[in-house]
Amino acid sequence: MTVQANMAGAQPMARRFGAVLPLLKGLVAIAAVLLAVELLVIAFGIRPYVLPRPSAVIEAVLRTPGAYRDAMIRTGLETLMGFGAGALFGIWIGVAFSRLRFLRETIFPIFIVSQTIPVIAFGALVVMWFGNTILAKAVIVFYLTFFPVTVNCLLGMRAVDQKQVQLLRSFGASDREIMRKLRFPTALPHIFVALRIASALGLAGAVVGEWFGDTTGLGVLLLQGMYAENMVAIWASILCSAVLGIAFFGAIGLAEKRIVFWGGESS
Amino acid sequence: MTYDPMSPSQHALARGVFGGLALFAIWELAARLFDLPSYILPAVSEIIARFWTARAVLGEAAAYTLGEALAGYLLGGAIGVALALAVTLVPQLRKVIVPAATAVNSVPVVAFSPLILLWFGMGVSSKIVMVAVAVSFTMFVSALAGFDRVDERSVNLMRSFGASRAAILWKLRLPTALPLILSGMRLSTVRSLIVAIVTEMLGAYGGLGWVIYQAVIVIDFVQVWAAIFVASIASLGFFAVVSFLERRLVFWR
After folding, report:
1. Which residues are in the ABC transmembrane type-1 domain (chain B) (predicted)?
2. I want to staple B15 with a disulfide (CB 3.0 to 4.6 A). Which of A17, A105, A213, B138 is the partner?
């Protein structure tokens, strides 16, 4: 990776700056919105119960940065573990389904139906099975991730043009080669769509999983804020969740740009 | 080759049903053979039996949750489509509404539930608001994508024939956007029930989430499973109804 980066050192500065500029614009816009909200709250004397001042929320985070940092690391780790395992397993199962017709026709309908099950309701059970460990939340995230990834992986594999398969085969390509050079690349954009959906779902799953019992994490902070009716603390936790959510979403977007460089569905 | 009286789709359906029954059979066998305690995995027959004995409680809870989910679903759908329409008709709004909606959506929606519970209380209204928040964003994105598909040349053509803004909206924009709006509505069904149930778990006077939470507290896992079964059936039913309406309304596809 670094070698590539060095070799691309001739890359014009403008392109690098071009990537930073939208980020900068976004930050300025966020700052402007926060300032506007701050002024509105002060001008109309809105009570903190309805809407606390943004500065008070940021101050709350800065007053105990350790608590919020630990919570973000914990929840982020839960999401990352479950998400990574779920993505890999989902792709694996998707590939298996695309190859084995019997498995696909018997099990895939169950997968589709299970998409309509309110999965988070299992949170309580999973926490019972695995205890108040980081593993319990990772399992919830895993479950939420691997379904959409499996479904989209299979759909992507089946979207392959049969004429291309026949062409490759006529040149003597093996099944393995067809998978690696044609089917999998075709499925990748679909897989990334699922990964983007799953990242939001997974984070929500981790937060809800923490409600069923834990000592650190954003879900715990949210609950504590609710029981104490501390609006500033709740908003601070929401802010941290947003940062985590944006980070995950952005990381997947970045990975997609790198891996599906030829441009997928999203472009 | 043997004669096959079933069409391919019937064949697939039969395989699917077979898969479902096989899953239940394996589940039942595993629970019975290994004598699994109910906190690990209760037998299917046990869950179905509970489903029957507790049908009054579960049915009432399901109706409660479905009512909340439906109200929030309709409210959120209306808000999402209205926002998308506003952005389409007044393009200047796009720069304000789209980033704001994206920012709100970057927060996992469940993170809002403590806030909404404090604002709107433990009753039904907090769940309706939560569902509406969750659904409105999905609907906004789908509806906006739908309205963006409208060919501006067609708009200009209709305008040159003297069509009013209302006529263009009703006869061109809405029919063009309808398939995407309805597929958004279909995708939102499951989400609306999940959000209602999760919010009920945090605090409520009734509903499936409340039943699940109470059952967890008294360590009655058969009840948890029965409630999850009911939630799944409700979710499937809701999904099926909306899919049916979708096929009816978008008959030209």
Report:
1. 62-246
2. A105
Out of B105, B118, B228, closest to residue A226 by CB: B118
Number of domains in chain B: 1
Instruction: Collect all residues of chain B within an 8 Å Cβ-Cβ radius of residue A124.
Output: 201, 212-213, 216, 224
What mean pLDDT, rounded, does chain A reach? 81
Q: Note whether residue B40 is domain-resident.
A: no
Domain assignment present for B41: no
**Pick from A50, A117, A238: CB nearest B235:** A117
Q: Which CATH number belongs to the domain containing residue B163 in this structure?
A: 1.10.3720.10
**Least confident stretch, A59-68, A223-232, B244-253:** B244-253
ipTM confidence: 0.76
Inside any domain, residue B110: yes
- Helical spans, DSSP H, in chain A: 2-7, 13-44, 54-63, 65-99, 101-114, 123-130, 134-158, 162-170, 175-178, 184-211, 218-227, 231-259
Is the predicted pLDDT of residue A67 greater than 70, yes or no? yes
pLDDT(A33) > 90: no
- Tell which wins on pLDDT, B231 or A50: B231
Q: Which of residues 179-218 of A touch B (CB under 8 A)?
A: 200, 203-204, 207-208, 211-212, 218
Q: Looking at the domain assignment, is residue A217 inside a domain?
A: yes
Query: What pLDDT sits at residue B70?
Result: 94
**Domain assignment present for A43:** no
Closest CA of chain A from B174, distance in Å: 24
**Domain for residue A194, yes or no?**
yes
Q: Is the pTM of this model over 0.95?
A: no
Those residues whose C-beta lies under 8 Å from the C-beta of residue B68, and which sit 6 or more positions away, are B124, B127, B128, B131, B196, B200, B207
Amino acid (one-letter) located at A21: L
